[in-house]
């Protein structure tokens, strides 16, 4: 009886050892596969972190470049506030108060623009007006006297502005928004007069309309297809 019990115990021990060996042989590849998957996940996570860091650095560099460009533009253009008015908008709940700013910008070298915008605060209204003026820049054809090539009348709405060239040393003889536009455009000698409304915004835009219509002798000769000397009556 004892021999039978010992034999059965030996058989059970052998079976359990076989099962343990089989299970260990199965678990070993699974553990290797799990470790490989975890390693790949760690590599992917580290790559994603590096990509995020690179994106943050790129965005910071791009923002720095934009700030530098904005500073250069601010240094290039001068700004003058022509008018600030408090305006209201009637809505269902009552009246909404805001501020409207009219700003003229220019580089005093032949480029000028007029902008108008509204906002809840004066500073924000001025910033929006400057951005609007940068989107509406106009080139001024200046001659050797830093004046206009010819006389012109600019009209915008009820405003009419008379612009006339002047000789060297005359200066800018104009007032209001017309004077601001001419000075920031780089005009040193000119006559300007406001005819009609006294609205600064309309007068500034009328001045720009007159500047847009100006042409130099070179431009007119190219449009007509004749030489400049013949256009000026200097040909024999």
Automatic annotation (TrEMBL):
Keywords on record: Ribonucleoprotein, Ribosomal protein, RNA-binding, rRNA-binding
One Gene Ontology cellular component annotation held by this UniProt entry: cytoplasm
UniProt KW Nucleotide-binding keyword: no
InterPro entries: Ribosomal_Su5_D2-typ_SF (IPR020568), Ribosomal_uS5 (IPR000851), Ribosomal_uS5_bac-type (IPR005712), Ribosomal_uS5_C (IPR005324), Ribosomal_uS5_N (IPR013810), Ribosomal_uS5_N_CS (IPR018192), Ribsml_uS5_D2-typ_fold_subgr (IPR014721)
Domain of life the protein comes from: Eukaryota
GO molecular function, one term: structural constituent of ribosome
Residues annotated as domain S5 DRBM: 77-140
One annotated GO biological process: ribosome biogenesis
Quaternary context: Part of the 30S ribosomal subunit. Contacts protein S4.
Family: Belongs to the universal ribosomal protein uS5 family.
Function: With S4 and S12 plays an important role in translational accuracy.
HAMAP family assigned: Ribosomal_uS5_B (MF_01307_B)
Protein name per UniProt: Small ribosomal subunit protein uS5c
Native species: Chlorella sorokiniana
Lineage summary: Eukaryota, Viridiplantae, Chlorophyta, core chlorophytes, Trebouxiophyceae
């Amino acid at each position: 009886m004892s021999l039978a019990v010992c034999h059965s115990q030996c058989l059970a021990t052998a079976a359990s050892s076989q099962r343990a060996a089989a299970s260990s042989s199965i678990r070993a590849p699974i553990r290797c596969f799990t470790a490989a998957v975890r390693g790949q996940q760690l590599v992917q996570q580290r790559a994603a972190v590096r990509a995020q860091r690179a994106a943050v650095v790129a965005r910071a560099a791009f923002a720095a470049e934009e700030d530098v460009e904005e500073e250069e533009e601010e240094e290039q253009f001068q700004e003058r506030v022509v008018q600030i008015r408090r305006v209201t908008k009637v809505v269902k709940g009552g009246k909404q108060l805001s501020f409207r700013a009219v700003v003229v910008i220019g580089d005093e070298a032949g480029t000028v623009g007029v902008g108008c915008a509204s906002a809840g605060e004066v500073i924000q209204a001025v910033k929006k007006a400057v951005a609007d003026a940068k989107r509406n820049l106009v080139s001024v054809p200046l001659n050797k006297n830093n004046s206009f090539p010819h006389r012109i009348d600019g009209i915008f709405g009820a405003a009419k502005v008379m612009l006339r060239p002047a000789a060297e040393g005359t200066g800018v003889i104009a007032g209001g928004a017309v004077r601001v536009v001419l000075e920031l455009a780089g005009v040193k000698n000119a006559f300007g007069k406001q005819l009609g409304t006294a609205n600064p915004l309309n007068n500034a835009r009328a001045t720009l309309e007159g500047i847009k219509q100006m042409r130099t002798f070179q431009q007119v000769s190219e449009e007509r297809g004749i030489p400049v000397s013949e256009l000026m009556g200097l040909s024999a």
